[in-house]
Each structure stands twice: as C-alpha cells, then as structure tokens.
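User: Hi! I'm working on a homework problem where we have to compare a predicted structure to a textbook description. Could you give me the structure for the chain below?
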Amino acid sequence: MAKLFLVPTPIGNLDDMTFRAVKVLQEADLILAEDTRTSGKLLKHFEITTQMHSHHMHNEHKTVTGLVDRIRNGQTIALISDAGTPAISDPGFLLTRACVEAGLEVDCLPGATAFVPALVNSGLPNDKFIFEGFLPVKKGRQTRFLILAEEERTMIFYESPHKLLKTLKHMVAYFGADRRVSVSREISKLHEETVRGTAAAVLQHFESKPPKGELVIVVAGKPKD
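Assistant: Happy to help. Predicted structure tokens:
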C-alpha cells in the first residue's frame, strides 16, 4: 500500500543509519530531501539510487497537494531532512498533516534525533520535559523567556553557534545565574562535547571558547518551592 514514510537520517555518525531506513529509501518511488546536495552524499554512501526531489521550508506549501495526489495514486514517498527526524524543527509537518487529513497512511521510522541524547546525558531530570526547539529571534523572544522562567520541567532548545552566547546571556537574565544548564554540540561526531554547569559558568566557558557545530541546550526547570 502506498504511504508516506518519515525517515530519520544520522545527525553525524553514518553508522547511526538503520537497516530499515536504508531499505525504505531503496524501495520508495521518490525521496523528498531538504537539501538534495547534502542528502545526495548520504544516498551515495548507502548505494541508494531512488529518484530525489527537493522539499524544504520555501517550497513545501506549494508542493503538498501534488505529493498527496502521488501517494493517493499508488506511489510510496520517503521524506528525509538534512539530519535527524523530519518535522522536528525541520520540514515535514505540512505534508504529514495533509496525508492524515486525506486518509493516507503515514509511517515514521524510529531513529536519530539530536535532543534525545542531549537530554539523557545532561544529568538533568528527564522524567518530564518540554521541547522548545529554536527560540524566536526577535519578536516574541522576551515574552517566551518570561513564560519559560516559570516552567518547572526540564527545557530543551536548539541553537546555532553564532546565537549561543546571546541565548545563554538571556538565560542568565531570565532564569538566574545559578540555573543548571547543559550544552551538547556535534552529537555523535568526532568532536562531540557536552558542557555542564550553572548558566553563568557555561556562558563563561563559551565566551572563552567560541562554539562550533550544531547545539542542543538543556536547562533545568524552575526549582519548586
């Protein structure tokens, strides 16, 4: 039966690719990739020759209807992002929603997602947590921090290297200098690193050692009274 597959891809180490993910990509009629150049290297490594089309935040609104029609007419489509699980701070939600609304089958494979290892190795409570993804860049940023300052669950954020210091400074200001923070970068790659400590200490670390690579910030929730 034709369906949409959401296929996680490695966030660094290619050995994290699952056998099932390779099989699905080999057997699909079409692969949708966030960046065909990036994904082309992955497909070449695993000797996957399936046709590939570009599917990203700038064109997904225009292509969803046609893709749904292709699945309805019998094609199996696999969606991948540059790294990690599609639709987690990456394109994928719009097509998934459209397929669900059309009564088409959607199958998300288990696999790599950056925030899970960052949360687990942070040493912070992980029985309850919230995933915030990327914070607003400008509009709504202060409002979001004011709301999160009262959050008692562990919080998880994605951040880029050039915005990390700004975000950590805001965390010191809104959450307090002593709030526990863990920053993981380059997860599963050669230079993987996790820096743990108070918000002030972690900020000081990255002020003296500019960050490189993709980052996940894990922050302890507000202490209960």
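For your comparison, note the following. The chain has eight helices and ten strands. The first helix runs from residue 19 to 27. Good luck with the assignment!
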